[in-house]
Specification:
This protein is an alpha+beta fold. The protein has a domain of 121 residues: Rossmann fold. Helices cover 34% and strands 15% of the residues. It is built from seven helices and seven strands; from the N terminus they run E-E-H-H-E-H-E-H-E-H-E-H-E-H. The chain has a three-stranded antiparallel sheet, with no helix packed on it. The chain has a two-stranded antiparallel sheet with strand order 2-3. A two-stranded parallel sheet has the order 6-7.
């Protein structure tokens, strides 16, 4: 979406809910060449869908290997996203000045999500697709806690059990600051 002449002078841009995207953008088709495929740790050969199937729902695997530029966001996921999205876009004028650049620099503020970070943007569809695939429980790890919080939130929305393990070093470090 190009910005109008008036919008270029704004510091904060907030879209209306009706302007919220309904598709995810897949950058892979627009790259000059595709990135190398992930390799299987045992065979050192490119990982295929059959290698991923024990770990991920097929809908997530199909997204991972898709060559489509846009992927529709499921309605159930969009309904959850509307809780905090669209999130505001800010122009980083002071950074532009510091860098002495003619470029306009923008950043998204994702702290408005229920988990307080961008991680809810992916935890919600991951929980949705796991529920759709018949999964009953998701187990994960978290460092500082943002991912665990985001996934626990998403699982609660789709009636999934969620077990979160916190990295020991992160847990120990959090008590040092207390």
């Amino acid at each position: 979406m190009g910005l109008s002449k008036d919008a270029k002078s704004f510091t904060k841009i907030t879209l209306d809910e009706s302007e919220m995207p309904t598709q995810w953008y897949n950058i892979i088709p627009d790259l000059p060449s595709p990135p190398p495929p992930p390799l299987h740790p045992g065979t050192h050969q490119p990982v295929g869908p059959a290698d991923l199937a024990p770990l991920f729902p097929m809908d997530l695997i199909l997204q991972e290997v898709s060559t489509d530029s846009y992927i529709d966001i499921p309605g159930e996921v969009l309904d959850v996203y509307r809780t905090w999205r669209p999130s505001p876009l800010f122009r980083a004028r002071r950074l532009e000045k510091l860098l002495d650049t003619p470029a306009r620099i923008y950043y998204k503020y994702e702290g408005v999500s229920p988990a307080g970070s961008h991680k809810t943007n992916t935890s919600v569809p991951q929980a949705y697709y796991n529920k759709k695939a018949g999964i009953k429980k998701i187990t994960t790890e978290t460092g500082a806690g943002q991912w665990g919080t985001a996934l626990a939130f998403a699982c609660s929305l789709f009636d999934l059990e969620c077990e979160v393990w916190q990295v020991g070093g992160s847990y120990d470090a959090s008590h040092i600051v207390d």
